[in-house]
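User: My instructor asked us to take a sequence, write out its structure as tokens, and then describe one feature of it. I'm not sure where to start. Here is the sequence I was given:
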Amino acid sequence: MNIIDDIYGEFIIDGVLEELIYSPPVQRLKGVYQGGASYWVNEKWDVTRYEHSIGVMLLIRKLGGSLEEQIAGLLHDVSHTAFSHVIDYVLDYKNEDYHEAIYHRIITESDIPRILSQYGLDYKSIVLDHSKWSLLERSAPELCADRIDYTLRDLYRYGSITRDEIDIFLNRLIINNGKIFVNDIQAAEWFVRTYYKEVIDFFMHPLNIYGYDALAKTLRVALDKQIITLNTLLGTDEEVMEVLRTSSDAEVSDLLRRIRRDVIAKENKAEYHCHRKIKTRLIDPSVLQGDRLIPASELSAEVQAMNENAKRKAEEGVYVQLISPQIVKN
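Assistant: Let's start with the prediction itself. The structure tokens for your sequence are:
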């Protein structure tokens, strides 16, 4: 198959990767929006988990990662439920890791082990232990393919960065002992600025916070009343929305009407309809200086200040006031 990606360009994909891409667990991700509730309050926020999963695979390939690590990258999000991280607010998973808790089950109950075994690959060694894949996943605040791709992909789609800027940054990446670093402080500063546009200006946008709050309340009620189950959430966003829409339950219908694209919201601590905190997400890429790797914050006062601001914002959370339409506070 031929893939033309917005960020990384054109690639020919065949063999096990092609078969995995066409498998139901990966195809389902075409109907799961990366931003969770975001798409349902703003149709322009439409990046999917499928696009991101393909992107992570391609970035790992571009950086020289093995076939096995590309497979792990492609499959790393297959256990995301409908509406992505909204479920973490429903079930109070403060580390936003419900998808990780069910990952093993989703993989083993799918066709993925069979597909991998046909190519002489052991699914357990590839997809059930991501700690060995240091291009794919690394603990914050370092860089990894997952963190890089969702940041670049979202902000490129939403018009905050250009392809030229992306290409310059990607050309500044270096691999040292199988891990991703940058080779100059300017590249690190650019990515930190970009990452906090994602975290603060997008994840913590008042409209986005409102969408998460409203959808989490709706799903919680629907689960409590057994209108849906956790297994229902293993479908696509639209499939779950259809179950909610066709429910005869008045409370669910009322809550669902609040999830709409004509909502106007702003941040207002003094007078607010909802308040939410999100997981603290910090970034501090290490920069290669001679033969030493040094955190960007030790080289740049700008990076240090951005990290302090992001930490403060996450701890404070977002106080959202609805400007219109009038929606009664729960």
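For the description part of your assignment, you could build on this observation: The chain has a mean pLDDT of 96. Try explaining in your own words what that tells you about the chain.
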